[in-house]
């Protein structure tokens, strides 16, 4: 083929590669064209994948992100189901139908307390598998345990038609109560790990929701379990079935959200914005306390003189549930598409996107995820200086030696704690004070009936009163404990005051065996027991106790 023709063919190959006649030249020209097509398609694929990433990223920003605030909002809902052991008085009358002797019911109440306060198994499970698995296991124990209680009091299921053995019912109640303990362990420990510099505040807020849980379910009981002419035993059985289903469903539903999440370094330094978020959570808690108090008041016929219409009760319950879920709305700026703790609204979203870009860049660039030790040390020193400025060490505690020669370390194993004097002093005081308070809690309906209170006031109303006062006691103890620590008083002083209030509450009902005396005693003991367990939890959080031991309730 002439050279001129060759030149024409080569020129044609550049413009029309598919019209070549010569196999060799056509192969070369087609290879060049395929190279250009591949490069163009690669650029097109990069652009389309970039658009897909942007669309996917925008969609994810509109969905709830599992960050520290998401975990806290989910933990609030979990804790609202974690204190149902205090509602024993609502269904204890149904247990008395099955077991007429009072000492048998007292034994069941003791096993209920044992299951609620035996937290070693929950702590071991948490350390081994984390909060999500702990919460799922707790939901299963809770649901199965309370379904077993329902089968016991109804006596309609095979194996439960005859009077069940007392030991089996005691074990069932212990399992149900221990499920509540796992709720508390998972929600509290995960939230405290996500807010390492706000452990006391997080503990106080979540413990307050736990204390309010019986009042919340008491209102659900009044609204959705109507009175029946057949007596209170069947109504109490319906209450047990309700808490079994609702509590188990909440535990399973919240388990993917309750976990320990990593925190970006920039997020730890926004203390003012974090404080603003916590103020919103506390505001929601105070509103819930006020709403539940209003609902419990209007549902007490001894106070208002008549029963309220059903639609009013449903409206009160709907409002209560909306207030309970209000932290999700108040924290929407840091939950729905704004990352973890960077404020709310447009500014929070902008900061969150900047942090996401930093994290993505750190993962893509060589060595981008490695921060120098000097930078880490500087950030740690800044955080420590901020904590010292906010919570200076009380001079009185630094100067005064301990009265007894015991352990001076704040991080001890369980075996080391058992060899210390302080451990046994704390154990003895907790046993005596909490034992007296829980005895009144477990039998408050019987005490109220013996003092002349009506049946309506001796069950759900007393449980709601106790629950509200328990919540307030946890909040007040947190404020007093922090103020006392800044003034130089030991945190155990608030524990001593709470234990003294327990004695006052018992003395009130002994000195005034009237319906008013019972209400006053239940209110005082609810407040004292809430402050009591909040102080115990604060002591554990401050001392950084050994793994394998869950938080006290």
From TrEMBL:
Signal peptide: none annotated. It is found in: Membrane. Residues 13-24, 33-49 have a biased composition (Basic and acidic residues). The chain crosses the membrane at residues 66-89, 133-153, 200-217, 237-261, 281-298, 310-331. Residues 69-327 form the Nodulin-like domain. GO terms for cellular component: membrane. The keyword NAD does not apply. Residues 1-12, 372-390 have a biased composition (Acidic residues). Its main location: membrane. Keywords: Membrane, Transmembrane, Transmembrane helix. It comes from the Eukaryota. Residues 1-54, 342-402 are annotated as: Disordered. It is a multi-pass membrane protein. This is Major facilitator superfamily. It comes from Micromonas pusilla (strain CCMP1545) (Picoplanktonic green alga).
């Amino acid at each position: 083929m002439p050279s001129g023709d060759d030149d024409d063919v080569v020129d044609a190959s550049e413009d029309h590669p598919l019209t070549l006649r010569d196999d060799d030249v056509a192969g070369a020209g087609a290879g060049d064209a395929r190279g250009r097509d591949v490069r163009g398609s690669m650029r097109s694929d990069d652009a389309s994948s970039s658009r897909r990433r942007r669309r996917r990223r925008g969609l994810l920003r509109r969905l709830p992100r599992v960050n520290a605030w998401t975990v806290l909002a989910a933990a609030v809902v979990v804790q609202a189901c974690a204190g149902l052991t205090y509602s024993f008085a609502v269904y204890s009358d149904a247990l008395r139908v099955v077991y007429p002797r009072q000492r048998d019911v007292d034994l069941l109440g003791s096993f209920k307390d044992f299951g609620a306060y035996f937290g070693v198994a929950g702590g071991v499970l948490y350390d081994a598998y984390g909060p999500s698995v702990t919460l799922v296991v707790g939901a299963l124990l809770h649901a199965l345990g309370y379904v077993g209680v329902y089968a016991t009091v109804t006596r309609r299921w095979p194996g439960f038609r005859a009077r069940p053995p007392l030991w089996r019912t005691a074990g069932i109640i212990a399992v149900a109560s221990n499920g509540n303990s796992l709720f508390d362990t998972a929600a509290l420990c995960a939230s405290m790990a996500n807010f390492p510099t706000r452990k006391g505040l997080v503990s106080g807020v979540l413990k307050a929701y736990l204390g309010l849980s019986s009042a919340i379910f008491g209102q659900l009981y009044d609204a959705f379990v109507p009175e029946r002419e057949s007596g209170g035993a069947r109504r109490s059985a319906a209450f047990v079935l309700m808490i079994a289903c609702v509590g188990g469903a909440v535990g399973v539903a919240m388990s993917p959200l309750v976990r320990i999440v990593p925190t970006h370094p920039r997020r730890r330094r926004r203390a003012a914005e974090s404080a603003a978020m916590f103020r919103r959570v506390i505001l929601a808690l105070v509103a819930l306390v006020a709403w539940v108090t209003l609902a419990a008041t209007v549902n007490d016929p001894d106070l208002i003189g008549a029963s309220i219409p059903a639609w009013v009760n449903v409206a009160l319950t709907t409002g209560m549930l909306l207030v309970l879920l209000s932290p999700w709305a108040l924290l929407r700026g840091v939950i729905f598409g704004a990352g973890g703790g960077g404020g709310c609204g447009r500014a929070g979203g902008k900061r969150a996107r900047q942090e996401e870009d930093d994290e993505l860049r750190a993962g893509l660039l060589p060595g981008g995820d490695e921060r120098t030790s000097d930078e880490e040390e500087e950030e740690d020193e800044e955080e420590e200086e901020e904590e010292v400025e906010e919570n200076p060490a009380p001079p009185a505690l630094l100067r005064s030696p301990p009265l007894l020669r015991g352990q001076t370390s704040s991080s001890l194993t369980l075996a080391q704690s058992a060899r210390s004097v302080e451990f046994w002093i704390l154990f003895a005081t907790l046993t005596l004070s909490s034992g007296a308070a829980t005895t009144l809690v477990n039998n408050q309906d019987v005490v109220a009936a013996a003092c002349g209170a009506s049946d309506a006031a001796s069950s759900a109303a007393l449980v709601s009163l106790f629950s509200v006062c328990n919540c307030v006691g946890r909040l007040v103890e947190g404020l007093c404990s922090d103020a006392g620590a800044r003034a130089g008083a030991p945190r155990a002083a608030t524990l001593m005051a709470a234990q003294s209030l327990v004695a006052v509450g018992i003395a009130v009902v002994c000195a005034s065996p009237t319906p008013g005396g019972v209400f006053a005693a239940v209110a005082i003991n609810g407040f004292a027991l809430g402050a009591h367990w909040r102080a115990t939890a604060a002591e554990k959080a401050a001392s950084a106790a050994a793994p394998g031991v869950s938080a006290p309730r």
